[in-house]
Amino acid sequence: MTDSHNRILLKLSGEQLAGEFESGIDPKLVAWLALEVKKVSQSGCQVIIMVGGGNFVRGAQIAGHGIQRVTGDHMGMLATMINALALTDIFEAQELETRCLSNIFAQQVAEPFVFRLANKHLQKHRVVVVAGGIGRPYLTTDTAAVSLALELDCDIVLKATKVDGVYTKDPAKFPDAERLEKISFQEAVENEEISVMDKAALGLAMEHKMPVIVFDAMKEDNLLRASRGEQIGTKIS
Ligand code: UDP
């Protein structure tokens, strides 16, 4: 027996949306992703997506040469907005009702993120895409994802990565690396080798016992299976 989830938070990084491209968005890949999310939505599970911006700008990387860190983070948050707008349109083009809610003020382009509004959209089985992370600098969308999952009472955070879970060492460098089915928060936070998710995000998840699954969302039906509580990727709990 597996426990199906009622509400999930899916964290998509900018890198995931770029697919094979070095930056920007691969619209074909996002259209495919829309169909994967649609399966979950049609199964009755509510879906919130926190989208990253690393395919355009990461604050910590762009800061310098006159650009303040805070400004860099603002740029990063705007990058997430670009992704969220694209995702929303491409999802709707696939006949998946989707709303973009922003944590930075951007009334001309998106609805503001308001707790009750987000809940209302979710209850109507619309996919909610959140732009702007949590709206403050010195944070990443991983941390924003965990915070949002707590706020909206999600059952789980599904963190999509290029690899299909957490390995004993970097699988790109070490062929003998082994994938772990589950690990504890403590291990995920303390082990320096584990870098699939921000330590700040893992710390927040640990403090509030919000389980996280690290998995490959680009494999057909993985998202649906994870939403049904099946063993996919690595569970951190
Ligand atoms: N960011 C921020 N506050 C937030 C979320 C994001 O300042 O709550 C900025 C930060 O500069 C970050 C950038 O937005 O580097 C893009 O997000 P992230 O690096 O998490 O994107 P990903 O790596 O997931 O594509």
What's this model, at a glance?
The chain has nine helices and eleven strands. It is an alpha/beta fold.
Structure description:
This protein is α/β, with parallel strands linked by helices and 237 residues long. The chain has a single domain, classed as Carbamate kinase (3-Layer(aba) Sandwich). Helix content is 38%, strand content 18%. It is built from nine helices and eleven strands. It has helices spanning 14-18, 27-42, 59-62, 69-93, 115-123, 141-151, 185-190, 199-207, 222-227, and strands spanning 7-12, 46-51, 98-102, 111-112, 127-131, 156-160, 166-167, 179-180, 182-183, 212-215, 234-236. Strands 4-3-5-2-1-6-10-11-9 form a nine-stranded mixed beta sheet, sandwiched between helices. A two-stranded antiparallel sheet has the order 7-8. Helix 2 (27-42) packs across helix 4 (69-93). The longest helix is centred in the middle third of the chain and has 25 residues, at 69-93. The protein is globular. 44% of the residues are buried. The model has no long low-confidence stretch (mean pLDDT 96). The structure holds uridine-5'-diphosphate. Uridine-5'-diphosphate (UDP) binds at residues 13-15, 52-54, 58-60, 72-73, 76-77, 79-80, 133-134, 136-137, 139-142, 144. The site of uridine-5'-diphosphate has 24 residues, from helix 1, helix 3, helix 4 and helix 6.
